[in-house]
Amino acid sequence: MFQKFSAAGAALLFTVGIACANDMASKEHGSETVTIVEPQLHIKPGGAAAPQVALTLDACMGKTDHRILDVLVKDRIPATIFVTGRWIKQNAEAVAVLKAHPDLFDVENHGAMHVPAITNMPLMYGIKTAGSLDAVRKEIEGGAEAITAEGMPKPL
């Protein structure tokens, strides 16, 4: 599928506007301050000669799908990859590929352990949620620390 896009001259560009927990607008909710985030997708115009497709690639818990990563490298397709700290620990070879191609890959934060950032429900789809704003902050900070510990730029 990626090869068809590449053959057509398409470029995959991924950019998402993300704000850090400390920089977001806040609203009072009971005794806690709740931060509201509205992600924004920005796609650069491609023009008639270079149509574009935007996808989100999440590297959460499992192994790397080299069918995708290898095509991105081979065809020089820029991408933003949202990684978890857990994925970084389990995929040293793929992390090395991302680090070897900083011109292609923007590595962003998907949390330390992929814990749902929910404070008012104990489970979401059968998965234990963060449960508190402090736990959400720790999840975000843990993901950022895992990225910078690998020598990659601090996520946005």
Structural features:
globular, disordered N terminus, alpha/beta, about 160 residues, two-stranded parallel sheet, 11 strands
Describe the structure.
Belongs to the polysaccharide deacetylase family. This protein has helices spanning 2-7, 66-74, 85-90, 92-100, 133-149; strands at 11-12, 16-17, 26-29, 32-35, 40-41, 52-53, 57-59, 79-83, 105-109, 123-124, 127-128. It has one domain (2-149). The chain has a 3-stranded parallel beta sheet with strand order 7-8-9. A two-stranded parallel ribbon has the order 1-6. Strands 2-5 form a two-stranded antiparallel ribbon. Mean pLDDT is 78; it is low at 1-27. The protein starts with a helix and ends in a 7-residue tail after the last helix. It is α/β, with parallel strands linked by helices. It is built from 5 helices and 11 strands.
